[in-house]
């Protein structure tokens, strides 16, 4: 490995309590999947991740806390989200409906709408998602 600083950042949610909760779930081995909007990648002109790619998991303070490796990437419409995904998100969802409610709330938030540049943004069954499955390959000590 060339060191965590050579890795692109793996960001979950926005800095704050939700990111802290998600990072803790990753470090505890409970969160092994994350879902983003394809629109985010398009707006940022960012390439989709690929299996085998490694990234540095970033906490709310901007610190690299772990190295994660992508194991699977799927692009699918929201309607195709399944229970495996809901459980893999590691946020305590017990059903796809709970998972969808939680994610729609995040995607419809003012922060997300601002990031997308669309104050009226809403998701529907056809909204395309990017689902990343990953594993922690190294937990980094404070200070890198």
Automatic annotation (TrEMBL):
It comes from the Bacteria. This is ASCH domain-containing protein. It comes from Streptomyces narbonensis. Pfam families: ASCH. Residues 12-138 form the ASCH domain. The lineage of its organism: Bacteria, Bacillati, Actinomycetota, Actinomycetes, Kitasatosporales.
């Amino acid at each position: 490995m060339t060191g965590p600083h050579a890795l692109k950042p793996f960001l979950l949610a926005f800095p704050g309590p939700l990111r802290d909760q998600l990072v803790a779930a990753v470090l505890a081995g409970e969160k092994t999947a994350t879902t983003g909007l394809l629109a985010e990648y398009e707006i940022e002109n960012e390439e989709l991740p690929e299996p085998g790619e490694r990234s540095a998991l970033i906490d709310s303070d901007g610190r690299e806390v772990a190295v994660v490796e992508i194991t699977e990437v799927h692009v699918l419409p929201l309607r195709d989200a399944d229970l495996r995904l809901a459980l893999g998100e590691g946020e305590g969802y017990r059903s796809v409906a709970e998972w969808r409610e939680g994610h729609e709330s995040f995607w419809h938030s003012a922060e997300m709408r601002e990031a997308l540049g669309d104050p009226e943004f809403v998701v529907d069954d056809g909204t395309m998602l990017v689902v990343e499955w990953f594993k922690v390959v190294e937990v980094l000590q404070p200070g890198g």
